[in-house]
Amino acid sequence: FGKRVSDNIIQGLAEHFPILGKVASGAIVINLLISAPLQIFCIVTAFEASGESAVHTPFTGPNVVFRVVLVLLLCVIGAMLPYITEVIGIVSSVFACCNNILWPMAFHYAGRQQANISPAHPHLRAVKYAGSFIVGVIVLVF
């Protein structure tokens, strides 16, 4: 491929390797079918917990309308908004790096500080924390 690759790698694969393109497209659809409901569930649950009105009460008429409008809005945004894939990629990278590397390291460090546990090798611990932080920042940036 090299410089001749199309912007959408799946379309490029489908032109030259139809079976591989179908497998990749199927994998994307399966990923969307699994991940979208989980993310929408988190949004709806947080919204419902934020108030006491009919729209915040699960499975009332206004709540069902809110859920349908939310899904339709997400579909319209996905279809119409330019560069939505890139924005989702950047946001996902930030959250993944924070959730998988930076936050656990910060919580571990804070827990050690609160427990007043003296390390056997304080310099080695500092290197460990600095190394983890550097890896997290590098993964976040690149």
TrEMBL record:
Q: Which GO terms describe its cellular component?
A: membrane
Q: What are the subcellular locations of this protein?
A: Membrane
Q: Which domain of life is it from?
A: Eukaryota
Q: Which Pfam families match?
A: Aa_trans
Q: Which organism is it from?
A: Alexandrium andersonii
Q: What is its main location?
A: membrane
**What is the annotated signal peptide range for this record?**
none
Domain spans labelled Amino acid transporter transmembrane: 1-125
Protein name per the record: Amino acid transporter transmembrane domain-containing protein
Looking up InterPro entries in the UniProt record yields: AA_transpt_TM
Sorted keywords for this record are: Membrane, Transmembrane, Transmembrane helix
Which parts of the chain span the membrane according to its record?
23-44, 64-84, 90-111, 123-141
